[in-house]
Each structure stands twice: as structure tokens, then as C-alpha cells.
Amino acid sequence: xxxxACDLSQHVIRPTLLYLQRHTPTAEALLLGTAACQTALGSxxxxxxxxxxxxxxxxxxxxxxxxxxxxxPELASRVRGLASQHAFLEAPHLELTVNLRYATAIAWLLVExxxxxxxxxxxxxxxxxxxxxxxxxxxxxxxxxxxxxxxVAQVSRVA
Length: 159
Hints:
Blueprint: H1 5-19, H2 25-39, H3 58-68, H4 73-82, H5 87-90, H6 95-98, H7 100-113, H8 124-134, H9 141-158
Helix pairs in contact: 1-2, 1-7, 2-8, 2-9, 3-7, 8-9
């Protein structure tokens, strides 16, 4: 069982993006759709191809720190502030699984590092294209749309 889409948005994604001073409806929708597609909102965390809610690979995680965050010490400090004090030093990739706010920050910054033009928050095809580009190059837009309908849209209709 995963996290309810409305709870993930309200208690993890939105506060993390606000903390990073990067909140937009599109950013929030993209991360919610990515979590839906990658792990069914946390229902399937175990995967050798990536860690946590957004299924981020160790290579992507390291590259983000080396190529993007190393050039922005203020942002790096904010992101590091989300990580566990000691656990991060011993097992930094584990933070992607056990720390939802840290994983969300890293997921958003992976998108930001690509310097892509973002679609409107309700442009599911546009969001799916970014998901494919950043998180799942072998993925299909249909996978993103189906995960959105299964995990996000039904909850949104009820709420």
C-alpha cells in the first residue's frame, strides 16, 4: 500500500518545493505523476534500478550532486538540510528510500538540471514526456498516463 496522492502532495511534495523556493503547480503535478508511475506512490519501493519513491538511480543521484549542486552551495546546503545528519554520510542513497522530502528535492532537481521547458500542470502528455526524459528514458507515455489515472486521478475525483 502506498501513500494517498493528496497526502503525498500536501505533506511531502508541496512543502519540499516551497522549502526549495521552487513550487509551481506543474512541479507538484510532475512529481506526483512521477511517483505514481515509478512506484505506484510508494507501493513498490524495492527495485534494483533505483531508490525510493521516484526510483532514482545511484548514478543520477551522484551526478546531480557533482554537476549541479556542487555549483550552487546555497541550494546544496538547503538540500543537505533535508537529509539525516549521520545516515546520509554512511549511506547517502538510502536517504532516497527512507526520507521522502530529501527524495522529493532530489527528484525535482533532476528535472531542473535538464533545463526543460515545463508544460502546464494539466498537460499530462507534457508531464509524461518530462518523466520519460528524466526518469525513464525507455518508458512509454502510456505508462505515465495509466499510472496517473490509477493513482492520482481517481483520488482527485473523490476529494
